[in-house]
Q: What sequence folds into this?
């Protein structure tokens, strides 16, 4: 227990601090801006509902608040906004264009004087399309400095440099399991200008925002994985892009009727989303499973 004052607890606390520092270095932020959680779902909940809860504690009526989210987010994000709507807030869902891109112009058009938070995933979890987070952030900042910007990083850090100040976001959700690290741990980057309230009650761990004894071993594995992928990022990105593009060409030759839903120039290099007209996806999935391919 890193909260203990015995010798073993002190060593555990030092290990946890070292892991936090390593992750902060990868994100280009201060160690105090990194809060450990159980994974991506909790990271999204703390980021989004933590903002709402803070406003509620400040006695702000939810009907006086406005929120923006893309319509193609992960369920762990969309369900948070469903809860925000249930509490009486106004939520705008922004649709992507035909390429799967959320345009900065659409986000700016959706802004209102009382917009509190915008949430857009860095790369879509099904299409792999990389969203122009930095451009969106700058467009928003040109109109207001008060609106917070959150991004669910997902698998993007595998192939893109996750420097939060370059992206100009206030909150970022990270899941260790998406980065070849251990399951059961993640982190939230919380900028110094962002004030959240806890959504889980208990002890005062993790700046009072995340109750529960910290998992020192998982944090160490998370930090180690992050260090490894950062060193391999460029080479692995090139390797996966070659494989993905080669597969896309071959499958189109084999099945001319196939439809590529992923824009190869605008997506993460390891993702390819396809449709085969006239065949149910469940049948394809089960057929591939019997051939040894897990989907």
A:
């Amino acid at each position: 227990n890193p909260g203990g004052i015995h010798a073993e607890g002190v060593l555990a606390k030092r290990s946890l601090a070292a892991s936090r520092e390593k992750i902060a270095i990868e994100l280009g932020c201060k160690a105090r801006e990194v809060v450990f959680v159980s994974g991506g779902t909790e990271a999204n909940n703390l980021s989004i509902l933590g903002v709402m809860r803070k406003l509620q504690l400040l006695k702000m009526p939810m009907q006086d608040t406005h929120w923006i989210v893309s319509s193609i987010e992960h369920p762990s994000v969309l369900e948070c906004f469903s809860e925000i709507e249930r509490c009486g807030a106004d939520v705008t869902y922004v649709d992507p264009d035909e390429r799967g891109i959320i345009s900065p112009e659409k986000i700016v058009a959706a802004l209102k004087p009382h917009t509190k938070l915008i949430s857009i995933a860095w790369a879509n979890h099904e299409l792999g399309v990389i969203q122009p987070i930095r451009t969106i952030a700058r467009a928003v900042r040109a109109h207001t400095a008060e609106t917070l910007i959150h991004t669910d990083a997902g698998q993007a850090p595998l192939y893109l440099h996750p420097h939060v100040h370059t992206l100009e976001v206030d909150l970022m959700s990270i899941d260790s399991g998406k980065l070849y690290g251990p399951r059961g741990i993640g982190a939230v980057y919380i900028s110094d200008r962002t004030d959240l309230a806890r959504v889980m009650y208990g002890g005062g761990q993790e700046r009072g925002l995340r109750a529960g004894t910290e998992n020192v071993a998982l944090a160490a594995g998370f930090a180690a994985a992050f260090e490894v992928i950062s060193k391999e990022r460029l080479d692995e990105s090139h390797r996966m892009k070659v494989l993905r593009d080669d597969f896309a060409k071959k499958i189109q030759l084999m099945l001319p009727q196939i439809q590529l839903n992923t824009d190869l120039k605008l997506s993460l290099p390891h993702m390819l989303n396809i449709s085969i007209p006239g065949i149910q996806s469940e049948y394809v999935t089960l057929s591939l499973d019997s051939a040894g391919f897990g989907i």
Notes: The first strand starts at residue 34 and ends at 37. The radius of gyration is 20 Å. The mean pLDDT is 95. Residues 63 and 89 are 5 Å apart (CA to CA).
